[in-house]
Amino acid sequence: MTFMGLWPEERNFSQASSYRVLAPVISMLCFICVPQSINLFFIWGDFDLMLENLSMANITITISLLKTVAFWSKGRPLKSLVTSMSRDWNTIVSKQDRSTMLDIACTSRSLSRNSVLLVQFVVVMYITLRFFMIRHNGRQLFFPAYFPYNWTNSPSYELTFLAQFVATMYAANTYTAVDTFIAMLVLHTCGQLSNLRRELTGLQAVRRAEFRGKLGNIVRKHEYLNRFAGTIEDSFNKMLLMQMLGCSLQVCVQCLQALTSVIDEANELVIFQFIFLVFYVIYILLQLYLYCYIGERLLIESTKIGYAAYDCNWYNLSPHEARSLMIIMCRTRSPLHISAGGFCSFNRELYSEILKRSVAYMSCIYAVK
Fold first, then answer.
1. Residues 226-235: pLDDT tens digits?
2. pTM of the model
3. Each residue's pLDDT tens digit, 320-348
4. Three-state secondary structure readout of the chain
5. Which of 12, 16, 36, 251 has a beta carbon 3.0–4.6 Å from 358's, enabling a disulfide?
6. Is pLDDT at 214 greater than 90 in this prediction?
């Protein structure tokens, strides 16, 4: 993320690091997004070529470009979140709390590693597919697109092909890095909520002043985590709306292309193309499921805080002290969540709904074709 200029920091145009993001933005915009969008006008009416244009790169790279700009523009709030995470780790005292946070950190690291490996595997498969197609059909670009020059001659062809490949690598890594970074932030919040729940369940004190001090620390930490999750939601809800709509369209057109490649085409590359599209769809579905998983986990962990207040030994407290717990219980009636533009929360129900709608649209388009 540092290499691509996306690592969270305050953006200052007097610093050279603030301009690193121009390399992925310009490469994705100038060599894939704009040329492929222009190419749509030249292939308009050819269903197969339009489907290939949209499914292979146009939609995916456009989403990656928008995510790059959205993530880069939130450098200041993201830096504050990273600083808060570091402070949380430094203030852990209990071995059980540290064990919980280590489990969360291992999960985040595993998600990041596996997501990067999967997206690199998808890119390698596409590179292999393109070389096979070039071998059978002659010179072709990495992605079919329109350029205002004759790219078929050397060295224009090699340079254009290389530029599209570099833009693809930028897009693939940005697409994955942004998703896993947000997942890391949300999972950190879940781990802190789990520790807070354990602290609240074991709340007990001999003196009233001691109880009020412990409860005050719990309330302050709870509000701190609410603000932490609120910053994530405010920073990315519009980007997540675009991600949800884009993934729905991606699943629709990619599944449709896989279907048409099997039914309508008859060549020796159709099996390899179908396998590539299957892995491509799996990658998109897993990245979308990642948001639904962390969204549902955040909602569940924040709701359990209210149950933890009930599970503590409130019946051994004085009436005044027991009533103080009701404030926490009332606050958890508005659980934390991450949403798509504030319209709907990410959870497993939303994931299944997106899949159903995408398949329904795919069937409708294929019937029209």
1. 999 999 999 9
2. 0.89
3. 777 878 888 888 788 888 988 888 889 88
4. CCCCCCCCCCCCCCCHHHHCCHHHHHHHHHHHHHHHHHHHHHCCCCHHHHHHHHHHHHHHHHHHHHHHHHHHHCHHHHHHHHHHHHHHHHCCCCHHHHHHHHHHHHHHHHHHHHHHHHHHHHHHHHHHHHHHHHHHHCCCCCCCCCCCCCCCCCCHHHHHHHHHHHHHHHHHHHHHHHHHHHHHHHHHHHHHHHHHHHHHHCCCCCCHHHHHHHHHHHHHHHHHHHHHHHHHHHHHHHHHHHHHHHHHHHHHHHHHHHHHHHHCCCCCCHHHHHHHHHHHHHHHHHHHHHHHHHHHHHHHHHHHHHHHHHHCCHHHCCHHHHHHHHHHHHHCCCCCCCECCCCCECCHHHHHHHHHHHHHHHHHHHHHC
5. 251
6. no
